[in-house]
Each structure stands twice: as C-alpha cells, then as structure tokens.
Write a structure and sequence with these properties.
The protein is 39% helix and 18% strand. The chain is α/β, with parallel strands linked by helices. It has one domain (2-246): 3-Layer(aba) Sandwich (Rossmann fold). A hairpin with a 5-residue loop joins β3 and β4 (65-67). It is globular, with a radius of gyration of 18 Å. The two termini are 17 Å apart.
Length: 247
C-alpha cells in the first residue's frame, strides 16, 4: 500500500490482510511505516514500545548494522513477528519514538535485510504478503517493498493525493514484472470517482466510500473489519481483494 500521507493506506492494508486470511491464506503483514496505523487496522492492538526486530540486529567491527548470525527471513518471522487476528503474522520495522529514529536504527536495518530475503525463502512460497509503506515515493524508490508484485496506490479525491499516487505508481512500474493499480478512497459518489480517474489518468480498481463506521473504528483504535464488517467500505475492500486475485 502506497500513496500520500493520510490517504487511508493502513486501513485498506489491514482490512485486506484480514480478508485474505479469512479466505484460508497464510498472511504476513509487513509494516515499514514509522507512524502507527497498521497494527490497529489489523486488530492487533498498540505497537510494541521496543520493536522486536531490534534484537535481530548487531553492529560489525566497522560499526555497520547487520543481522545476527543465524537470523534469516524464516527465523526472523518466527522469532520477531507478532500475532494478529485470523492467524496473521505482523513484522514491523519500528515506530519513531520521541527521541527520533536513532533508537530504532537496528530494527530498521534488520527489517530491510529481512524483507530482501523473503522472496527467496521457500517457506513463504504459498503465503500472501501485505505491506504498508510510508507516505510518498521514497521507500518505493529505495527498495522497501522488494516482495511486492502489485503496488496499490491509494488516492483521495484531491490533486495532491493523486500527484503522490501517480509518482509512486510510475516508480513502482519501473521494476520488471510489477504492476501498480489505483484505488480511490473516501469517495462520496460517482463524481469523486471520475475526478480521481481524471487526475491519475486511468480507471481505478476500486472505489472505497467515505464511511462513518470506518472513521469510528479508527477513532477507537480497532479493526474496521471487526467493528463494522458489513459496512460499505469493508465490502468494497473485499471486492478489491477478489479483483486483485483475479488479476
């Protein structure tokens, strides 16, 4: 999930992961966003104060971060991922504390190394990865989602949101074999959908409506799929999951 900050990436990512897991798939949720969001949307509660992956990192004799000996992608998920509802495993890079990113540099470096090894790990061949990336194109450009075969650019019906999504999609599509699709979020009707499609220059794969039930779930810090499973937004995200599978 990529796009502008506040576009609704975490809500859609968390709900998609729950929908896929309930369909019988093994799901690994991957969170590189330094701000909280995905864990609440998954229904996994607050993020840990100390990112578990911090224990997987150490510095070498030159002061550079590396994974501890014996820690590969499988062991990292086994040891340092946390449990979420419906059997989902959640691996997080860490959240920025008040002191800045310095306290979580070990976790960030460990996360980056782990995700680059995930696509080659046979253990995860039949798993679905759902990633939530920070706002903007930087993390896409610098390889923070090497596991991704599809980038879902979430767009609100504003020019700023569409511009960010277009940039991210353009960068994602530079990788061979990767597709990028657009999803309109918090739309209030067909005019909003047409407006988004005009701004991004192509049809959207789904149009998630503005939904007070989802907004209420966010205020409560709970998963929309638990709080309002039959709400219009959740139903449209379910349709999005089916459309992505067919694609």
């Amino acid at each position: 999930m990529v796009g502008k900050g506040g576009a609704g990436k975490s809500v859609i990512a968390g709900t998609m992961a729950r929908v896929v897991a309930r369909d019988g798939r093994r799901v690994l949720a991957l969170d590189s966003d330094l701000l909280p969001g995905l864990s609440f949307s998954l229904g996994a509660g607050a993020d840990p104060t100390q990112p578990p992956l911090g224990e997987a990192a150490e510095k070498d004799e030159n002061g550079r971060w590396r994974l501890r000996k014996g820690v590969g992608p499988v062991r990292a998920v086994q040891r340092y991922a946390t449990d979420a509802p419906d059997g989902i495993r959640l691996l997080q890079a860490g959240k920025t504390p008040q002191a800045g990113v310095e306290p979580i540099m070990g976790s960030l470096n460990a996360y980056y190394r782990v995700i680059h090894r995930l696509p080659r790990a046979r253990t995860f061949e039949d798993w679905t990865f759902v990633g939530d990336l920070p706002a903007g194109p930087r993390h896409v450009a610098f390889g923070w989602a090497p596991y991704a075969e599809t980038f879902v650019a979430v767009v609100q019906p504003t020019a700023q949101s569409a511009l960010a999504a277009r940039r991210v999609a353009r960068i994602a599509r530079m990788r061979e074999g990767v597709r990028a699709v657009f999803v309109a979020n918090r739309v209030t009707g067909a005019d909003d959908v047409r407006h988004v499609e005009g701004l991004v220059g192509e049809p959207v794969m789904a149009a998630v409506p503005a939904d007070e039930a989802v907004a209420h779930a966010e205020r409560l810090g709970v998963a929309p799929v638990d709080h309002a499973p039959d709400s219009p937004a959740v139903v449209e995200i379910e349709r999005l999951v089916a459309a992505l599978a067919e694609g």
